[in-house]
């Protein structure tokens, strides 16, 4: 059986590789997914099925300038089925060319080697400002 730490590390590696399909494979069929933010951004909101995961990442990445993103993972803490990732995201919004930085906390819950919950906590105001016309 895959551990929470192994699944979390695979998640982070696939995010870094921009492997949308591979990311989808890490999730259970039914999920509790929440990325809060302004409804003007097409990737924010709740999702409940594994099939929605690859499209989320493709949509997000399409909104960012290629080659101008950095993710600095500062800590990963696991406890049983729970993992928390602390990171800093640096991106450039493709529509506006504005750079932005946001501190991130991400909660992952892993059951039987599959991610069943992903909640992202970030500076949604900074993200919205970077994409505002």
From TrEMBL:
Keyword hit for Hydrolase: no
Annotated ranges, domain SnoaL-like: 10-118
Pfam families, per the entry: SnoaL_2
InterPro entries found in the cross-reference section: NTF2-like_dom_sf (IPR032710), SnoaL-like (IPR037401)
Gene3D superfamilies given in the database record: 3.10.450.50
Entry GO MF terms: isomerase activity
Keywords: Isomerase
SUPFAM superfamilies named among the record's database cross-references: NTF2-like
UniProt name for this protein: Ketosteroid isomerase
Organism: Nocardiopsis sinuspersici
